[in-house]
Amino acid sequence: MSERPQPERLRETMSLPRSLEMADFHVELPDDLVREIQELREVEESEYIETVRPILRAIMANIRRVEGEKIRGDKWVYHMLPDPNDPERNNPLVVLPGHGCGYEKASGGCSMCNFAGEGRDATKQDVDEAMDFLISNQEDHFVHKINLNALGSFFHDKELTPDLRSYIYQRIREYAEKVGDKGLVLFVTEGRLDHITDKKMKEMRDGIGEHVLLDVGVGVESTDPLVRETIINKGLPENWEKRLQIIKEYQPVNVETHIIFGTPFLDESQTIRDTVKSVKDMIEISESEGDSRDLVLFMVMNRKPGTLTEYLARGDQYQLPNLMATAEALLKIGELVSLDSLKHVMVFGLVGPDVHAEAGTQYVGEDTESAELKAIHEILLNWRGLPEDLDKLRSAFDAVPKEIRTAVGYHGPYEGVGLTKEEKKDLRTTVAEAYYRLVTTFFPHLEGLSFEEISQYFKKVKV
Ligand code: SF4
């Protein structure tokens, strides 16, 4: 066995690579390692997650540091987004300056996201300029939508200081008073669930006033802890559902939960079943709170530079889901939830975000030549969750000829919802073997250590 590296050397080692070696996913692993990974199939899920997660975080941190696409947070920026409730309207989403996602800095970030970021602190002047811009886009609409975000999580004190958050609330409150009963002010923002506390929600509600409607976007990605924590690296606390309840205590408020479609290491059938189950779970959680206007955002995976997804794709270990699979997942959700609930499921990710386009983002369906698949793409782009959307999607899906289904790699439709116990055991093996190959490629001095020893090694240091 090689000499054990000292944990304090990690940062030094991590800053050394200038380009990422591509891991060889076909190389045979040593017998004792294969045996050790096999044993991980039988341990408690929480134990498996605790063993694998430190290794995933180190892998993510290294991918980001070596070739992560840095989103500069030097000035406030905006993107125009279609309004899910009004086909005629686009709304600006503003992102304030900042130093990037705080979770990414602490934990390597989510494996599909490239919000690494570098920049400067946001200031009151930024808030004033952003608010003036947002207000100038409201024109004669009854709903005045103020969509204002940090570069990662609105509720992270290192991304936005408490003082600046208070100032934002004050500006929104003043604007709402000006609008009065001539309209409804809606404040939309996003944050990580682990940053949501009663104190922060109370400050927000007290600050913006009792009449401003709130939309809080949060990432859950998958309700299956194995998928969410060992592949997405979401880092949610075990009691994440309680955090949703905290938000709901500060009415009037809607929660927009992000669920990802197209997770690495899951095959086509599994990613459909995992996403369908997660969307259904989120609808059930939301409806258990009574009458709800919460949304579930069905986020179709993009390939972004500096992410695990992109790295795996370059090594032929990942493919974006195809449009047929995307349509099947939506159709399944349509079968499982009521028509009323379906109106709360929105589809995102099918258009490469402008801000990433030049950086090489790839998205599902961007280069299809088939008229039948283009029809599906169009329906999904204009999806409002209405019964007629579901009917149109069903007809378009059925109209795709067999040779085109095969050509795009689609082999469904599939049975069932969620992953089976046996599939989850196999997934544990696939993931652990892949991470061993990645981590020993990035940190060759770890080769020869057991999986557990590598996990312990990364537990001792912050990535
Ligand atoms: S998805 Fe959100 S929490 Fe995760 S790395 Fe990206 S910005 Fe950060």
Q: What is Rg?
A: 22 Å
Low-confidence stretches: 1-5
Please summarize the sheet with the most strands: 8 strands, mixed
Fraction of residues in β-strands: 5-15%
**Total count of strands:** 12
Shape: globular
What structural category do the secondary elements indicate?
Answer: alpha/beta
Helix content: 40-55%
End-to-end distance, in Å? Answer: 24 Å
- The CATH architecture classification of one domain is Alpha-Beta Barrel
Count of DSSP-assigned helices: 19
- Order of strands, widest sheet: 2-3-5-6-7-8-9-11
Overall mean pLDDT: 90
CATH class descriptor of one domain: Alpha Beta
Q: Looking at CATH, which topology of one domain would you report?
A: TIM Barrel
Name every ligand kind in the structure: iron/sulfur cluster
Overall description:
- The protein is of the alpha/beta class.
- It has a domain at 1-15 and 45-251: Alpha-Beta Barrel (TIM Barrel), CATH 3.20.20.
- Helix content is 45%, strand content 14%.
- The chain has helices spanning 10-14, 31-39, 45-67, 102-107, 124-136, 162-179, 198-208, 225-230, 240-248, 268-287, 308-314, 323-336, 339-342, 354-357, 371-381, 387-398, 402-407, 421-442, 451-459, and strands at residues 72-73, 77-83, 86-95, 118-119, 143-149, 184-190, 213-221, 253-261, 295-300, 302-303, 345-348, 362-363.
- It has an eight-stranded mixed beta sheet. Strands 1-4 form a two-stranded parallel sheet. The protein has a two-stranded antiparallel ribbon with strand order 10-12.
- Helix 7 (198-208) links the parallel strand 6 and strand 7.
- Helix 3 crosses helix 19.
- The two termini are 24 Å apart.
- 44% of the residues are buried.
- The chain binds iron/sulfur cluster (SF4).
